[in-house]
Amino acid sequence: MKLYGPGLQTVGTDNAISTGPYEPCGLWSDALWDHPDRPDGIAYQSRHDSNEICFALFERPGMMFDIRSTKPLTAILREVAALLDTYDKSLSPT
Question: Is 68:76 a contact under the CB 8 Å cutoff?
């Protein structure tokens, strides 16, 4: 279920669902979980970067994922560095 763009009007809310306090967001999540259409989850605009869409999947009985491959974090250091650069962040050892 899209909770961004025109999808906000579909369920009768506004973008406060992505930027407001967590309590109303939790109530929306509970209502969508219980909805007869049984959506698999929600897509919403990131609170910290409005250009990004986040996904939350509802855990339902029998839900399964098909994991095709994994990579250690050390195998994607360039991608991680690019992401950190995008947000002007860095990592340092503890």
Answer: no
Q: Which of 37, 50, 55, 5 is nearest to 13 (CA)?
A: 5
Rounded-to-integer distance, Cα 54 and Cα 3, Å: 10
The two three-digit tokens of residue 8, written as one number: 């906000």
67 SS3 class: coil
Token pair of 3, please? 């909770």
Question: What pLDDT score was predicted for residue 25?
Answer: 80
pTM: 0.70
**pLDDT in the model for residue 8:** 85
End-to-end CA distance of the chain, in Å?
40
